[in-house]
Inverse folding.
């Protein structure tokens, strides 16, 4: 699978922006960069499971960065991914410490960099909590929002895919679901804090 | 749903015309609660998108047994290479064993074992006496035919005389005759001399007379009896060699 036509760094970024090539891009990210980041996590006291989870989060954050135009290719993809992984892992260690885990901390060579990476990683805990709120919405709500906001399907396409009566039903359902999610987010202290910070800037 | 919220969602979905878009932006600038609402809706949309990306990455992570394969790959290679080396070493070892077995099989025979084990019986060495007997003299002079002539003509059929005659037959490669003479000694219940010597040489005579089972029985008896005079020589006879001879029979 995808063994031919490997992307260069800039082609990889372009592929992430084109949704139909995203899977191939993710596959290549795993093939080319997982080993080194996994070695780093394991070398810093993480388990194999930690390494797998952190690399998954790293890829999600990288894609988010690219799609939001925050990866300007000033460094190579590998350097950027390692930087994300380090930050996620150090945050995770701190989180576990706060949770009372007596795990050894490896903060010696912690990257102190600021910028898009730290910005993305800092709200990691909040994103996890918001993701749980999305799961609480129920499968049909989640699906309809995904099809519209991620797959970019039209109302007509969603009607045929989800077997709703008509586009208006889908539209109403989508409004309702998004509003429900927004209302749930309003109850989340981390989200409220971030919104207040954004508004006050 | 409140009309304002619906407009905000349409604004985020880029469903409004330019005029309505401008109007919403002005409303948001002037109304903090509306600005908050817009941010929460935006955050909700981000959450949906992020969750979709996460699902996609997770599905690829699961479809590639990649993560575990990554750490296992070098180990697998190492194990595979150790395994290959072990297999090669084992194959070479088996080949060498095979060659050794074949070599042994084709080189081991009754005559080869006999030649290795047979040593002339030195009459003077064992008895430590000077002989005045004509048969003894002929034997010491290695005149085997003379030994046999004297034995046949003479009336002395002592174990010693029979033994010397048997040894002369062995030296002349007349193994059936030698077997017969050695058996006579062993069957002679009145005289116990030369019994152990006879047992040893009889076992060798059996070997050359194609009576392998009898030979092996006698050899095993001597091997088991540590006080037997010929025990040190008997234990030098390899059981494998005897088995090969038995197989070739």
């Amino acid at each position: 699978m995808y063994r031919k036509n490997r992307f260069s760094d800039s082609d990889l970024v372009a592929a992430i922006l084109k949704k139909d090539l995203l899977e191939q891009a993710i596959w290549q990210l795993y093939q080319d960069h997982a080993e080194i980041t996994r070695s780093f996590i394991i070398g810093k006291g993480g388990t194999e499971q930690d390494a797998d989870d952190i690399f998954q989060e790293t890829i999600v954050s990288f894609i988010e960065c690219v799609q939001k135009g925050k990866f300007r290719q000033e460094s190579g993809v590998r350097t950027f991914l390692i930087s994300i992984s380090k930050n996620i892992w150090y945050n995770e260690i701190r989180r576990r410490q706060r949770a009372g885990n007596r795990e050894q901390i490896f903060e010696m060579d912690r990257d102190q960099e600021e910028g898009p990476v730290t910005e993305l990683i800092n709200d990691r805990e909040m994103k996890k909590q918001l993701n749980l709120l999305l799961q609480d919405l129920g499968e049909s709500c989640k699906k309809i929002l995904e099809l519209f906001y991620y797959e970019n399907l039209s109302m007509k396409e969603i009607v045929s895919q989800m077997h709703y009566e008509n586009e208006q039903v889908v539209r109403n359902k989508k409004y309702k679901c998004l509003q429900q999610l927004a209302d749930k987010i309003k109850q989340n202290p981390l989200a409220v804090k971030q919104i207040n910070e954004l508004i006050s800037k | 749903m409140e009309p304002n919220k619906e407009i905000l969602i349409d604004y985020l979905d880029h469903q409004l015309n330019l005029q309505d878009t401008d109007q919403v932006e002005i409303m948001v600038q002037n109304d903090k609660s509306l600005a908050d609402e817009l941010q929460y809706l935006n955050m909700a949309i981000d959450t949906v998108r992020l969750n979709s990306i996460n699902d996609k990455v997770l599905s690829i992570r699961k479809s590639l047994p990649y993560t575990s394969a990554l750490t296992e790959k070098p180990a697998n290679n190492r194990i595979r290479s150790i395994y290959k080396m072990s297999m090669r070493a084992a194959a070479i070892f088996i080949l060498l064993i095979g060659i050794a077995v074949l070599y042994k099989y084709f080189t081991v025979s009754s005559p080869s074992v006999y030649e290795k084990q047979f040593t002339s019986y030195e009459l003077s060495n064992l008895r430590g006496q000077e002989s005045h007997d004509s048969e003894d003299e002929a034997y010491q002079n290695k005149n085997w035919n003379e030994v046999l002539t004297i034995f046949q003509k003479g009336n002395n059929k002592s174990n010693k005389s029979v033994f010397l005659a048997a040894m002369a037959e062995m030296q002349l490669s007349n193994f059936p005759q030698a077997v017969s003479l050695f058996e006579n000694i062993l069957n002679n219940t009145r005289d116990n001399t030369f019994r152990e010597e006879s047992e040893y040489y009889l076992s060798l005579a059996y070997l050359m007379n194609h009576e392998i089972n009898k030979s092996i029985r006698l050899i095993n008896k001597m091997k088991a009896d540590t006080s037997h005079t010929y025990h040190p020589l008997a234990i030098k006879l390899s059981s494998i060699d005897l088995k090969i001879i038995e197989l070739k029979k």
In short: Residues 9-122 of chain A form one domain. The two ends of chain A are 46 Å apart (CA to CA).
